[in-house]
Amino acid sequence: MIGVPLAYSMEQASKSRIGFFVTPGFGWGRLSATGGTSESGTRPLVGAGASWTSPAGWGLHLSYQAVVIDNGGNNIGLGFSWRMN
Questions:
Q1: pLDDT of residue 73
Q2: Per the confidence metrics, is the pTM higher than 0.85?
């Protein structure tokens, strides 16, 4: 898969930071059944997320990723980061 992340981040009055991103893209995949038949092709993907980083350097991050296909499922991620100086 390949995607192009587009992000925006801004500092708040409290010196914390918030950020947002979207990632349009596409991927290639193959599906094969036990009977020996297989199908392959490309599908569009979409991703989005947000983050908040405290002035002390730790942050929370939330993201979403989906393949645009029937019953393709969704992926949701939650992350924590710590900036060490």
A1: 81
A2: no
